[in-house]
Amino acid sequence: MDTMESLCDITIFGGHGDLAFRKLMPALYHLSNSGYLDEKSRIITATRVPMSNDEHCDLVKSKLKEFLSDDAFEEEKFEYFKVQLHVVTIEFDILESYRGLKALLDEYPERQRVNYLSTAPDFFGTICKSMSNLELVTPQSRVVLEKPIGRDLQSSRVINVEVLKYFTESQIYRIDHYLGKDTVQNIMALRFSNRFFMPLWNSNHIDHVQITVAESVGVEGRWGYYDDYGAMRDMVQNHLMQLLCLIAMEPPCSLDADSVRDEKVKVLRSLRMMTPADIEQKTVRAQYAKGSSDGKPVPGYLEGEGVEESTTETFAALRVDIDNWRWNGVPFYLRSGKRMRRRNSEIVIHFKGVPHSIFANQGKCIWENKLVIALQPKESIHLQLMNKVPGLSEQMMLKPVELELNTPLKVAHKPDAYERLLLDVIRANPTLFMRLDEVEAAWKWADVILEGWAEDMVPMKSYSAGTDGPSAAVQLIARSGRSWHDE
Ligand code: NAP
């Protein structure tokens, strides 16, 4: 690879935060050690606690040991990596505190600059303004914005307008780490490089689609943050919507960033806006009550220290309709929740049954074909087919079997989503990042539901921690004679 392309200064604002230590540093360690980052590149951590470079390196080392998976930490590799590490002290609101960063960046004014804002969104505008005031924003600068970008259309506009005063749209990388997962990218490979899916991928052959993102954990000490957002804003509006777009979009004319994003925006604009009656019929919101997780009792969402009365949902389920030619009459069922029975993220494409079954009169169940795209805890793609059970029985017995579609392609190191996404920012490839119009279209659709919920159009349900969510979610899909994949 051309190393000049990867020569850059990466500044992480909020560099001693949870995300920086758990995801960004391990990703940069791998990129550096696998040669994707030029050895002269610098990784500059901005923190508000003053410390020396040596103290910072020791801290990064201990965090890498904690968060790198599969024993990937190696002393020798760290010695190579640590040469790239720098630390500066910055208090976001104090312009003068950016001087140390300026001194470092000004050493190489022509270099590509990646500014990763791993902070609460309230700081995005302040940080960008300070960088601009000190002339640290150059044509080679990019800025990465972490989610959540606002809590509705209005607040997301305020944030975006502020950042757009200092960076152009093409310099802004709005991250949705789900798009960095290999299996998520594989959806495009599967759909657009395998001819046999092409004629099947529409309402003639697909009955419905299910998208589930279930977490077994609760709010894990982040109650204050989570309570401002809830499942709809934290998961559905971004991660689940992005997955829906990849399944529903038309083939882009190329893999070029705007071609892909144009097609995703078209899907978001085709989502049927919910009426009050739809919100009542097609949405479910719920909070978890006490229950168990991994066999241990766990408190409910409204129990515990620092917890207040709240109407924030920890679970959301919805039936989404897409008003276009391809998907007319094909519902997309979405659900996401915390403290669910198991951690499980998957997309299931349910195909229609055969037009006439010669096996149906045996009283045996004939299953429909399903394509199961699993994202968590393991990434895999399975096609469920009906197969004859071997043997001499008088009547032909059928059984569903699973064909694994992605086994043969093994790699030594499977990159984490943040590795792929950071490298794309370094390479200035925004394909897997959300463009402004995408973010706004998703909020526009979600806002209607959130407003309906705020007006209590749907009662808040409850579910025990460690279960599959409220029975209302089962009823939601059962209304059309269907059931969730894992029921
Ligand atoms: P965090 O642990 O609270 O880290 C935020 C960092 O910002 C802290 O290191 C904090 O410094 C620093 N900071 C806060 N106020 C500051 C100020 N006035 N001046 C200078 N530094 C200041 O949060 P996080 O979990 O890393 O999340 C960062 C962002 O990523 C959030 O927007 C979050 O929603 C998003 N995100 C996080 C995750 C995740 O897994 N953690 C996943 C997806 C998205 P101190 O350490 O000195 O307080």
TrEMBL record:
<feature type="binding site">
    <location>
        <position position="181"/>
    </location>
    <ligand>
        <name>substrate</name>
    </ligand>
</feature>
<feature type="binding site">
    <location>
        <position position="338"/>
    </location>
    <ligand>
        <name>substrate</name>
    </ligand>
</feature>
<feature type="binding site">
    <location>
        <position position="147"/>
    </location>
    <ligand>
        <name>NADP(+)</name>
    </ligand>
</feature>
<keyword id="KW-0521">NADP</keyword>
<dbReference type="InterPro" id="IPR022675">
    <property type="entry name" value="G6P_DH_C"/>
</dbReference>
<feature type="binding site">
    <location>
        <position position="177"/>
    </location>
    <ligand>
        <name>substrate</name>
    </ligand>
</feature>
<keyword id="KW-0313">Glucose metabolism</keyword>
<feature type="region of interest" description="Disordered">
    <location>
        <begin position="288"/>
        <end position="307"/>
    </location>
</feature>
<dbReference type="InterPro" id="IPR022674">
    <property type="entry name" value="G6P_DH_NAD-bd"/>
</dbReference>
<feature type="active site" description="Proton acceptor">
    <location>
        <position position="239"/>
    </location>
</feature>
<feature type="binding site">
    <location>
        <position position="234"/>
    </location>
    <ligand>
        <name>substrate</name>
    </ligand>
</feature>
<dbReference type="InterPro" id="IPR036291">
    <property type="entry name" value="NAD(P)-bd_dom_sf"/>
</dbReference>
<feature type="binding site">
    <location>
        <position position="48"/>
    </location>
    <ligand>
        <name>NADP(+)</name>
    </ligand>
</feature>
<comment type="function">
    <text>Catalyzes the oxidation of glucose 6-phosphate to 6-phosphogluconolactone.</text>
</comment>
<protein>
    <recommendedName>
        <fullName>Glucose-6-phosphate 1-dehydrogenase</fullName>
        <ecNumber>1.1.1.49</ecNumber>
    </recommendedName>
</protein>
<dbReference type="Pfam" id="PF00479">
    <property type="entry name" value="G6PD_N"/>
</dbReference>
<keyword id="KW-0119">Carbohydrate metabolism</keyword>
<comment type="similarity">
    <text>Belongs to the glucose-6-phosphate dehydrogenase family.</text>
</comment>
<dbReference type="InterPro" id="IPR001282">
    <property type="entry name" value="G6P_DH"/>
</dbReference>
<dbReference type="Pfam" id="PF02781">
    <property type="entry name" value="G6PD_C"/>
</dbReference>
<comment type="pathway">
    <text>Carbohydrate degradation; pentose phosphate pathway; D-ribulose 5-phosphate from D-glucose 6-phosphate (oxidative stage): step 1/3.</text>
</comment>
<feature type="binding site">
    <location>
        <begin position="91"/>
        <end position="92"/>
    </location>
    <ligand>
        <name>NADP(+)</name>
    </ligand>
</feature>
<feature type="domain" description="Glucose-6-phosphate dehydrogenase C-terminal">
    <location>
        <begin position="188"/>
        <end position="485"/>
    </location>
</feature>
<feature type="domain" description="Glucose-6-phosphate dehydrogenase NAD-binding">
    <location>
        <begin position="12"/>
        <end position="186"/>
    </location>
</feature>
<keyword id="KW-0560">Oxidoreductase</keyword>
<feature type="binding site">
    <location>
        <position position="215"/>
    </location>
    <ligand>
        <name>substrate</name>
    </ligand>
</feature>
